[in-house]
Amino acid sequence: MSGDQLHNDSQIEADFRANDSHKHKDKHKDREHRHKEHKKDKEKDREKSKHSNSEHKDSSEKKHKDKEKTKHKDGSSEKHKDKHKDKDKEKRKEEKMKSSSGDIKIKKEKENGFSSPPRIKDEPDDDGFYTSPKEDSKPLKRPREDDEWEEERYPEGIKWKFLEHKGPVFAPPYEPLPENVKFYYDGKVMKLSTKAEEVATFFAKMLDHEYTTKEIFRKNFFKDWRKEMTSEEKSTITNLSKCDFTHMSQYFKAQSEARKQMSKEEKQKIKEENERLLKEYGYCVMDNHKERIANFKIEPPGLFRGRGNHPKMGMLKRRIMPEDIIINCSKDSKIPAPPPGHKWKEVRHDNKVTWLVSWTENIQGSIKYIMLNPSSRIKGEKDWQKYETARRLKKCVDKIRNQYREDWKSKEMKVRQRAVALYFIDKLALRAGNEKEEGETADTVGCCSLRVEHIKLHPELDGQEYVVEFDFLGKDSIRYYNKVPVEKRVFKNLQLFMENKQPEDDLFDRLNTSILNKHLQDLMEGLTAKVFRTYNASITLQQQLKELTNPDDNIPAKILSYNRANRAVAILCNHQRAPPKTFEKSMMNLQSKIDAKKEQLADARRELKSAKADAKVRRDEKSKKTVESKKKAVQRIEEQLMKLEVQATDREENKQIALGTSKLNYLDPRISVAWCKKWGIPIEKIYNKTQREKFAWAIDMAEEDYEF
DNA sequence: ACTGAGACTTAGGTCTAGCGCC
DNA sequence: GGCGCTAGACCTAAGTCTCAGT
C-alpha cells in the first residue's frame, strides 16, 4: 500500500481526527497566546544553527568486520574477555615497571591517567581500603578471575553496601551591607530590614544583566521580595521602578574589584581554605573506596534565572537550611552532624539510590541531589553501560530501521506516527520530547512534543524534493533549525498528520515518549529514545575519524581532524554555544600572530638563501653548518606557522559549536582512546585531566583496534 | 492508561586560576 | 613581574526515563 492510497483510508483517518480534536483542544488551552510570544522570542533568539546532515552510511558495512575479534575483546559481559584483558594489563604493567626508572616517571604516568598505578593493585589489595583519592581513580576494576562483577555482587537495584560522608556544605550566611551603602526608594534613603536587604542585594548584583529589565523577571522578583519585607516596608515599597539599587550595585562591583587586587598571600589563604573544605567535605567512602563528591556545596540563595523565556525567572530561590536536608548514608557509618543548633529533616539509609544528600527546591518543587563525581566507580560503570547499550543497538539498528520504514505504511495512525517520530530521532538525533507542564517552564519541545507550527513542508526546495523545515526551541531553549530532505513516504505522512490541525496542535497527537519507549523496549532490551543519540553520535565519530585522519599528517593536523570529527557530532546533536564575547578580538589577535609568523618565515628563507649562496662561494665547513642551521630555522618556523593556521581554522569552525557536551556525554571514549593509540597521539591532547579521570575506565580498557 | 514523584543524565553559561606573552 | 586570555572548573537548569499509585 502506498502512502497515497493510505490517504484514502477514510475510516482510520476519521477515527484519528475525531479523536484528535478533543484531545489537543484541552491540551493546548492557552497555547495560542504563548505561541505569539514564542515567535517573537524565536526571532530574537540567536540566529544559530546551520546544520548539514549526515546520513546513515555507517552500520551495515562494518557488520562483518566487527565480528570475532571485537566480540571477545569487548563483548561487555563475557568473562573470557576479562582474562584477556588482565593478561594484557599484566604485560603492560610489567613493561612499565621495567622501564620506569624513577618516581617522576611514575607520577607523570599516573597523571596521564594512562597507567595503572605502579603498585600491584589488581590482586591482593583489591579490597583494601583506599586513602588516597589519586590512587583509586579506577572506577571499573577488572576483577580477578574468580571475582564477581559489581552488578553480580549487588543484587538488583542495590547500589552500595557502605556509605559514609560528612554531609553538605551550606552557603555562607548573609552579611549585612555596611552602613554607608544605601538603598533609595523614590529618591529617598531607606534602611531595609536584613531579610529584605538580602533579597535586594540579589537584584542589585544582577543589575547589569538584560533580564532585570524583563517584565516577567521584575514581576516575579517583586512579588517574592515583598514576601520578605516587614509590613512597613511592604506598605512603603509598592513600585519596583522607584527602587534604586545602583549604590548597592556599585558597592558589589568595587568588592569584586578588590578581590581581584588581593595580595598573593590573601589569595593563597582563600585557596587553602577551599582545599580544606574540599578535603573535609568533598569526599565520601562508598564500599571501601574513597570517592570524590560532585557538588558537596548547597546552592546559595539567589534569583532564579531559567533559560530562554522562562515564566518563573526572577523568583526567589530560598536559602536551604539543615532542616530541609535529607541525609542518605549507611546505618553503620558515622552519621554527619548537622550544624550546631540545627537538625536534619531526615536521615535515611537507602542503598537503592546513589545520592548522599537531597532537598526540595522551591521554584519547581523538584528534588535536588548531591551525588558523586563522574570519576567515581558508580558513575563510570553507568557510563560504560550506556555505551554498551548503544553498541547493542548497533547490532540491530538495521532491523529497526527496516521495521520503521515498513511502519510508515501501517494502517494504524498510531504506528505511523511512532514510525515517523522514530525516523526523526534516528536520522536527526532529536531528543525524545516529554510533555511539560504548561506555564511551569519555557516552551521547548523534543520529537514527540513537536507541534504543527514547528515544521514546514516543502514539496520542493532548492532543487531537492520533499524537504521538511524544522524550526523549534529544544532543550535549554536552543534553537533547532534544519532543512531536511526526507523520503516521500515520510513527507506524505507528515501532510496527513498535519491535516485539519491548528499550528499549536501536536504533530504526533497519538504519540508520547512513554508509548515510544515501550515500543523500543520491545525491539531491544534497554532501548530508549536517547540511545539513538548516543549510538549515532559515537558511530559518527568513529566513521569520521576513519575518513578524516590522514596517516601522513603531523600531530596538530591529526588533532584538527579529530576536532572536525567531534564537530560533526556536535552539529548532529545541535550542541551550540553563544560565540564567546571575545571571539572577534581573539581571532584578530591570532591573525596578527600568523601574519607576524609569515614575515618571520620570509626573513628566515631569505637568510637561508643568502647562506646557501655564501656557502657555494666559500665551500667551507662553517658556512655549510650555517646553511644547515638556517634550514632548520625555516623548518621550525614553518611548523609554527602551520600550527597557528590550524588553530585559527579550528577556532573559526568552532565559533558557535560546543564540542564539550558531545565529548563528555555522547562519544564512547574508547573510540578516542583507540584512535590516540593507533596514531600515537598523547591522550592528553584529546582529554584534559578531568576528562581523563572520568574516562579512566576507557583509557584502561581500549586498545588500538577497538571498534564501537 | 495516566500521573506525578523521584533519580539520574545532559546542558550551556559564568567564573577564575594559571598560562603564555611582553 | 604584570597583564590579558582562555581552558577548564564550577554551577545548576533542563532534560530523560522509571516506577508506584490509581
Based on the model shown, name its key terms.
51% helix, DNA-binding, Arc Repressor Mutant, subunit A, alpha+beta, globular, DNA Topoisomerase I, domain 2, disordered N terminus, TopoI_C_dom, 708 residues, 3-stranded antiparallel β-sheet, Topoisomerase I, Chain A, domain 3
Major sheet: size, sense and barrel closure? 4 strands, mixed
Alpha carbon gap, first and last residue: 37 Å
How many domains make up the 3D coordinates? 4
Strand content: 5-15%
Average residue-wise pLDDT: 79
* Rg of Cα set: 30 Å
Enumerate how many helices there are, as a single number: 24
Helix content: 40-55%
Number of strands: 15
> Per CATH, which architecture of the largest domain?
Orthogonal Bundle
Coarse morphology: globular
What is the CATH topology descriptor of the largest domain? Topoisomerase I, Chain A, domain 4
Which strand order do you get reading across the main beta sheet? Answer: 10-9-11-12
- Broad CATH class of the largest domain: Mainly Alpha
User: Unreliable runs, pLDDT <50, ≥5 residues?
Assistant: 1-152
The helix/strand class is alpha+beta
Q: What's a quick, concise take on this entry?
A:
Residues 24-39 have a biased composition (Basic residues). This protein is an alpha+beta fold.
